[in-house]
Amino acid sequence: MDHADWSTWSNAIDQLRFFFPIGTYLPKRFTALGLDMTVLGLLLSSTARDWLCSWPLQFLGKYSFAVYLTHGTILKTVLIWMIYGTSGQPWDEHRKDEKGENLDPIPLPRCGKAGFVFWVPVWVVLVYCVAWLWTNYVDAWCEKVSQWLLRKTLEEDEKSLAGPNMA
Questions:
Q1: Is the CB of residue 74 less than 8 Å from the CB of residue 84?
Q2: What average pLDDT does the chain have?
Q3: Between residues 131 and 167, which one has the greater pLDDT?
Q4: Helix 113-133 vs helix 55-74: angle between axes, to the nearest 10 degrees?
Q5: Number of H helices, E strands in the chain
Q6: pLDDT: is 68 or 34 the higher one?
Q7: Close Cβ partners of 138 (under 8 Å, ≥ 6 residues apart)
Q8: pTM for the full predicted model
Q9: 126 and 73 Cβ atoms separated by less than 8 Å
């Protein structure tokens, strides 16, 4: 805000400056304080807590890390194929006109607005299906491998602690 001092509420907040060390960037601190108050309000509100505990948000939260891990790859492959198709058109970065001057590359034709309206929700469903598979199979396999490595490591530690065999 260019002229925060023009607002009465901004001047009132400025009176709280003494809470922070001298030289602190106040907008950042007040943003954090506002976020803290919002979180506190959500925690104290039973309606907000009930909404945050609803099954759709629980579902989204359960698969959010897998979505984070996989969405980029699926976006750069499958969604691009959905929107632009698999034209096979070669990418000619060094096109030149008859005078030898560089030309812009020819853009790929893409689907219209109806294609976006159809394909983007299909892509979101696909991303969550892949996230479900990742969570149920890849994470489970990684957990088994981690447990196996942990057992092997603990066995080696127990052998080294036992010392040489005195028999």
A1: no
A2: 85
A3: 131
A4: 100
A5: 7, 0
A6: 68
A7: none
A8: 0.62
A9: no
